[in-house]
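2024-03-11 09:14:02 DEBUG pipeline.ingest accepted 1 chain
2024-03-11 09:14:02 DEBUG pipeline.ingest length=140
2024-03-11 09:14:03 DEBUG pipeline.predict start
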Amino acid sequence: MLFFGSYEHNLDNKNRVMLPSKFRSMIKGNLFCMTGFEGCLSLYTEDDFNKLSQKLSQYSFNSKAEREYIRTIYASVIELEIDKVGRILLPTSIVNKYGIPKTVSIIGVGDHLEIWDTNKWNEYNKNSEKNFDMIAEELK
């Protein structure tokens, strides 16, 4: 399963957001939502969440950095159900904690989805595209 593309959606007055139909058709079951990088939320299917958990289980709890990473990830996880019309409900606590506005961008990032404040996503994407060639050269 490979998620890709970028879609803009609005939260309704109950903090529900419609998942793009392209993504909904690929998801079986619930999504696991957790803190992401650069201020976004990361959403994983159950299978991909289990794969991520297997990777995390290889970290050493004796290492301070690894222990903090494990704690931060697992403490932030919430399970989200997709309703009959394809929406997920973002709890008010999550909306407040991450400053999620009414307009969000939902992007596919390979093995997971991300939910971004659309303004933050546009700025991040603009900067990333500007440095794309340089970033590509640095990758090994």
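2024-03-11 09:14:41 DEBUG pipeline.report The mean pLDDT is 94.
2024-03-11 09:14:41 DEBUG pipeline.predict end
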